[in-house]
Amino acid sequence: MEIPEPKFKPGVNVVNGFNFAPQFEEKNILSALSYKVRDDDIFIATYPKCGTTWTQQILVLIFDDGEPLVNQHLYSRIPFIEAMGAQTAETIQRPGGALKTHLPFEMVPYNPKAKYLFILRNPKDACVSFYYHTKLFKEYKFDGDFHDYLLCWLRGEVECGKYDKHTLSWWQHRNDDNVLVLLYEDMKSNIRDSILKIAKFIGEEYETKIRNNPEILEKIVKHSDINFMRETTNKVYEQRSRAHNSVAEDSDYKFIRKGIVGDWKRHFTPEDNILFERWFKEAFKGTEVEIVNGLNFPTPFQDENIISALNYEAKDDDLFIATFPKCGTTWTQQILVLIFDNGEPSVDVLLSTRSPFLEPMGAKAAESMQKPGAIKTHLPFNVVPYNKNAKYIYVMRNPKDACVSFYYHTLRVKAHEFEGDFHDYMLTWLRGEVEGGKYDKHVLDWWNHKNDDNVLILLYEDMKTNIRDAILKIAKFIGEEYESKLIETPEVIEKIVKYSDFNFMQETRNKQFEYKQGGDQQPEVKTKKVDFFRKGIVGDWKNHFTEEENILFENWFHECFKGTEIESLWDKYKIFEYRNK
């Protein structure tokens, strides 16, 4: 893809064909490249502005039981090897130190016994953050605006070159025993889980200490918070930068600026976004599932609709129904529309006018939705269109039944082109190589917001056990006037129960879905056989899992959710046998 030539370019120092920061001395770069890695070395690697300093802070806090450095630069414990040279690596504290690098995998000093932690950040936010970093330091001599910088960044004419090549060089080693790849956005969404993963990776003794001393974990969370680091770390970094005359005297020094997810929306023009999305698709094409902004979407979903969905600005009165796929979305849509309509079932076949599916239908469907209504989404919390005044209902289903249901859904939709058996699908599901990605990350992302005033989390199994109670909870959440109406007119709640019953939906909706399959609401989704509502029961997994598959699944579940409240959520339903022993 040809990227237009920018008017202005930042300075770089090219050594051995690689772009380094202009202020880095060649002797330090060369010594860094030839550094002989020790068996006990730990590297923090990133493309620039992808969470390096944050991860340095977390690592030092893990080493120091949650106590932050006082008036001390992070480089004293985790030096930047390309900037400072190999000699700094020789003198770091061991254990208790690490090395920072922005080198791609093929250039980084390597030892199969050393450990490498790589942080990935979505490229849009990385680009914006790098722009401000470049404007801050005089050595880059960059006088352009953001559009100029975006072009330079896409062309790889910046420090560290092309984001895609750098990222893919590390991504290809994500399954190596000595490499841990984390997503910046996942860290923002669930910092405690990320801290524990990092601790376990650098040494199980660190993880054990943190689990046995929860107050240490809370101190690490507190002292790695962006607000704390802005107040403390920025001051130390500013002193160093001004001592080296790297920043203008009148500059507002913000090495640590925002650190949020989605700041790109405040900088990209529609034209910038189209160009960026085309670059992203071409740079990362060739995956089995099309990836847009690092998320897995079904192949038939059109890019322009996905992009507009991600960019949709949630309104104050918006209501979202969110789930991991096959966890009760359509059932909850039916309940909501029945609440809105006093128990009368909708004649709208796909509920698309009252509850459009945001990702395949795009923002225009949400904009034109009949109200009162609700927007359906399978997006994780960290990328769902958010408004603090909007409301979000998230339905969780036990992962065993969710996996089985998703298997049949995948077989039903031709576009998935899946010809394997259930065992093949289960392995794919556990690896997160399906629409929606990894179940555990999706669920934890929403679960971390369970106490937010504008989020209601329901269990599918609880809804099956006591549908009337679930209906009243939903009604109260969306507006107390709806709850009052149901309490005052019990015949309405009985109609909602009747018309949200699975047998009713199986008899009516399946026929309507078959009639409308391939319709204009969700283009190109053609079904082999319409059985959209299949069973909807709790425990159908028992008819599919072999003993070996069950052991594998339970081990996965325990590993993903140990130490969290989610591990015990389904105990009363006896879903997980290891929990019943």
From TrEMBL:
<feature type="domain" description="Sulfotransferase">
    <location>
        <begin position="316"/>
        <end position="564"/>
    </location>
</feature>
<comment type="similarity">
    <text>Belongs to the sulfotransferase 1 family.</text>
</comment>
<protein>
    <submittedName>
        <fullName>Sulfotransferase-like protein</fullName>
    </submittedName>
</protein>
<keyword id="KW-0808">Transferase</keyword>
<dbReference type="GO" id="GO:0008146">
    <property type="term" value="F:sulfotransferase activity"/>
</dbReference>
<feature type="domain" description="Sulfotransferase">
    <location>
        <begin position="39"/>
        <end position="287"/>
    </location>
</feature>
<dbReference type="InterPro" id="IPR000863">
    <property type="entry name" value="Sulfotransferase_dom"/>
</dbReference>
<dbReference type="InterPro" id="IPR027417">
    <property type="entry name" value="P-loop_NTPase"/>
</dbReference>
<dbReference type="Pfam" id="PF00685">
    <property type="entry name" value="Sulfotransfer_1"/>
</dbReference>
